[in-house]
Amino acid sequence: MQRLGIIASSLFLIGLAPSALAGGFGEKTMRAPMPTTEVERSLILPRGWVETKVDFEQKVATASWNSAGERVDFDHSTWLYRTERLTLSLGYGPHSEMWFSVPFHQARLTQDRPDVPADYTQVDIRDNSIGDPKVGWRVEILRTEAPLTSVVFNTYWKGPAASEAPGTFIGGPLNVQGFVFTTGTPDAYFGVAAKRQFGPASFTLNAGYMRRFSSTVQYLIELENMQFLGRIAPGDELQVDTDLTVQAGPVALHAGTRGKTRAETRVGTTSGGIGVLRPDKPCGEGVDRGCLRPLAGSGGAALDVNVSAQFMLSRGLDFHVGANIPVVGEDFMFFPIEDLHPTAGTTINVTLEARY
Questions:
Q1: Are residues 241 and 258 in contact, defined by beta-carbon separation less than 8 angstroms?
Q2: 260 alpha-carbon distance from chain centroid
Q3: Residue 193 near residue 205, CB atoms below 8 Å
Q4: Max Cα distance, the chain (Å)
Q5: What is the pTM (predicted TM-score) of this model?
Q6: DSSP string for 54-67
């Protein structure tokens, strides 16, 4: 009887073995659930999920904005600006998400004037560079289910890494064979986002403040003292984004706005003395040297309209296609630095999200 009991127990364990082994290839037990529809998903990645996002953006611009916010066409010129971006995200806690993003830029400026000799005015300048990486963190401070309410705190840090050397202007503009792809300065962003579901729809509001620190850059040249490294402090920004989403089966339709106001950019020579402790100090109050003076007209407001369609191919795979359309813009003072004063043109974007 004892021997029969041992045999029976062994057969029972052997019968369980296939299901136990298969469990290792099933869903992770520590992973939080991921809703199948976009309107039911919170603003952070659920715990235990890892997401890889690949973005492609392309803008063809033939116009800019003047100081009055009016659209001004280029003089027979076309500006092509393309960005590929890789973003990795990790839902590492019940209410937290960490992410890292790095872009890659390509740009091309062409000019074709039929009214003058072709060998004198034909311009075709191309350049590319890695972009400025960002690392960020989101934490959910409020969440309810059915219907969903999600409120999160966002913060990220941008470090300058892209090319900021446009070449030499000595000898004329045709000697400039490169572009500036960065402000050359770090940024810190702090914001709050809230999402509320209404049946098959949801509305998201995102508001934040971006502090733009000063730094010495290669593209800023000070002519009075002949300094080839100037200091620039881009204006801080207030940003407000909205998004209305309507769920139609496995497709989510998005429509929203992206607005921002920017303070004036300040520039000056590299600071010395006590300015080392405060390199972005403004001029005035007895400070005349080593300070940063505002550039009149460099501040302003901008408003874009975003539309997109999101196809949920599976719980772990989404595909987005959309467009960003500028409605109101800012002055054209810092071309070609798109991160300061974007050109006027529709941006087409395609995104693939894969998560596990």
A1: yes
A2: 14
A3: yes
A4: 106
A5: 0.82
A6: EEEEEEEE-EEE-T
Q: Does the pLDDT value for residue 23 go beyond 50?
A: no
| Residue carrying the six token digits 């359309």 | 325
**Residue range 29-355, CATH number:** 2.40.160.40
Is the Cβ–Cβ distance between 288 and 273 less than 8 Å? no
Can you give the three-state secondary structure of 224-255, one letter per residue?
CCCECCEEEECCCEEEEEEEEEEEECCEEEEE
Average pLDDT across the chain, whole number: 83
The 3-state DSSP class for residue 19 equals helix
CA 63 from chain center: how many Å?
22
Asked if 296 and 264 touch (Cβ cutoff 8 Å), the reply is yes
CA 296/CA 266 separation, integer angstroms: 9
8-state DSSP, 290: S
C-alpha dihedral, 198 to 202 to 208 to 210, nearest 10°: 170
User: How many residues in the chain?
Assistant: 356
Contact 270, 228 (CB under 8 A): no
Burial status of residue 33 (CB atoms within 10 A of its CB: 0-12, 13-18, 19 or more): exposed
Contact 191, 205 (CB under 8 A): no
- In tens, the pLDDT along 229-269 reads 788 899 999 999 999 999 999 999 999 999 999 998 988 87
Contact between 209 and 192 under an 8 Å Cβ cutoff? The reply is no
